[in-house]
Specification:
Blueprint: E1 3-9, H1 14-24, E2 30-35, H2 47-59, E3 65-70, H3 74-80, E4 88-90, H4 94-102, E5 108-112, H5 118-130, H6 139-152
Parallel strand pairs: 1-2, 1-3, 3-5, 4-5
Helix pairs in contact: 1-5, 2-3, 4-5
Length: about 150
């Protein structure tokens, strides 16, 4: 079974969200693209609502990964991380995207439409889906510490 990927974006990220959605529909590892973002730039819905809605789908097991876009990527990352069990971060280069998954078992990549070009955003979105976390890696113990803290607090 392929990945179910949720996309979220506010009016500052809707252009990239839509382009990423189109690209992911052709990605061999993607079975479903779920769009919880705004439909166009006239929709002024606040990014925290959209990022939380996307992150909740992942936390509930209704989506596997998420790619969230706002002007910088930082706001949607902060909002998504408020959802229990979610690990989200902004990343604007291939190495950081790789480490996001391989070292941190993150489910959400956050991008800034005002920070990077569209070609790079499309490449990073694809790369994000190509990485898999190794539960036997040395990083697994560190991720477990994060999860344990979250459960206890």
């Amino acid at each position: 079974m392929g990945l179910r990927v949720v996309l979220a974006a506010d009016q500052a990220g809707v252009g990239y969200k839509d382009a990423i959605a189109e690209r992911l529909r052709q990605h061999p590892r993607v079975d479903e693209v779920i769009d919880v973002g705004v439909g166009d730039v006239s929709d002024a819905s606040a990014y925290p609502h959209l990022a939380v809605a996307g992150a909740e789908l992942i936390a509930e097991g209704r989506a596997d990964r998420g790619i969230f876009v706002c002007g910088t990527g930082m706001g949607v990352a902060i909002a998504a991380n408020k959802v229990s069990g979610i690990r989200a971060s902004t990343a604007h280069d291939s190495y950081s995207v790789e480490r996001l998954v391989m070292s941190n078992d993150a489910q959400v990549l956050c991008l800034g439409q005002r920070v990077i070009g569209l070609d790079l955003a499309l490449r990073l979105a694809s790369e994000f889906l190509d990485h898999e976390f190794d539960p036997d890696s040395p990083s697994a113990e560190k991720v477990a510490v994060i999860c344990e803290y979250e459960r206890d607090h």
